[in-house]
Known about the structure:
This protein is an alpha+beta fold and 482 residues long. The chain has helices at 8-21, 45-64, 74-80, 95-101, 112-115, 124-127, 129-146, 152-165, 182-199, 266-271, 292-296; strands at residues 208-212, 221-225, 229-234, 239-245, 250-251, 280-286, 302-304, 312-317, 322-331, 336-347, 350-359, 365-375, 385-391, 394-398, 403-405, 410-415, 420-426, 431-443, 446-464, 469-480. A hairpin with a 4-residue loop joins strand 9 and strand 10. Helix 7 packs antiparallel against helix 8, helix 7 (129-146) packs parallel to helix 9 and helix 8 (152-165) runs antiparallel to helix 9. The longest helix has 20 residues, at 45-64. It is globular, with a radius of gyration of 25 Å. It starts with 7 loop residues before the first helix and ends with a strand.
Amino acid sequence: xxxxxxxxxxxxxxxxxxxxxxxxxxxxxxxxxxxxxxxxxxxxxxxxxxxxxxxxxxxxxxxxxxxxxxxxxxxxxxxxxxxxxxxxxxxxxxxxxxxxxxxxxxxxxxxxxxxxxxxxxxxxxxxxxxxxxxxxxxxxxxxxxxxxxxxxxxxxxxxxxxxxxxxxxxxxxxxxxxxxxxxxxxxxxxxxxxxxxxxxxxxxxxxxxxxxxxxxxxxxxxxxxxxxxxxxxxxxxxxxxxxxxxxxxxxxxxxxxxxxxxxxxxxxxxxxxxxxxxxxxxxxxxxxxxxxxxxxxxxxxxxxxxxxxxxxxxxxxxxxxxxxxxxxxxxxxxxxxxxxxxxxxxxxxxxxxxxxxxxxxxxxxxxxxxxxxxxxxxxxxxxxxxxxxxxxxxxxxxxxxxxxxxxxxxxxxxxxxxxxxxxxxxxxxxxxxxxxxxxxxxxxxxxxxxxxxxxxxxxxxxxxxxxxxxxxxxxxxxxxxx
Length: 482
């Protein structure tokens, strides 16, 4: 910010320019933190006196400009400003690590480190939410391990698994595939889930639903921690962002959101990028006639954007392991307003989600209500994954490639690598799109297609006149393959 390196007058003028540039913002204006590199100050008596004179003059200027420049303590700012997004301040960085992070950011005339937008290794978590989620899982597990008391052997066993889950290769982009390589991420998740299991005392652990800021974004998430599964719900979109099948140490929501990279070619760009998270119980209110191929490329036409709705927690029933979330979406063009009441219920290895949709606006709603489910497996190989679909009494095997089907009773993912079956059971027999999600990263200095997950989109035609309501339900169950 220029503290102690530029004159106080210049710094205050910089702050004035920032304030004027953002004066039209709807919130209370920009919040600026001035951070001082203390290692460069007061190495001598003269430097210390110079810094004191600089600071006195700066405070005098602040006092003279209180009509637009206000000083607040961080705690008060946190209470009055809702978090926007996660950002990490610059830190020291390991040059070799950053060179792996974006090895292709340089052109023929430039140096990769100079052109990289990443300020430090933590900046990777701003670019890749998958890294941020894995890091948050690691921190959450670290807390659980530190809470173990009275059993040194159990604590050391859990700690060793935690250390295994801290292997850095899965957390960022590097020449081994890094964050793009799901096998690396899954190995880290497996170790962290095993560490969490080790912290649980037999006969004492009780399944529970609770509120915890598990992803370190400043807002509480809803966590269900059970004997069979862990399930984490984010209030943005009311979506599920982690689903651990505990007996197999497998996170079925170890998914990946495709994004542009400097090394992507025309074929990769044509395959598309994801403009919303590839997670579970991701809701859409689509314009009728949506194209499946376009949706798979990350392109959609919406009546109302439900993906980014911030839900309020209406109730949390700890006795019955359920949570009710409520949000309102508006279509300003047609004066339509939809209230989504989304109820999660957790029963052993099953998750039941009920949607109560109400049109509280003045205009009608003509749309397709879609629930997107992304599940991550080892690979698309027939020895690892098979897909079965039931339509009424008829059950057939379908390809893991792009499939469009009508009136589906249930969809089964046979996870042969883990010897489990994941079943999606929707109400009212919706139409279904099914397709794989793959992303192009780097493996041994060459672009490589990495499998990430399988996407199933359950779609119901939805017509709601003003004051009309409808209820839709979806169940997800994980069980051992017989």
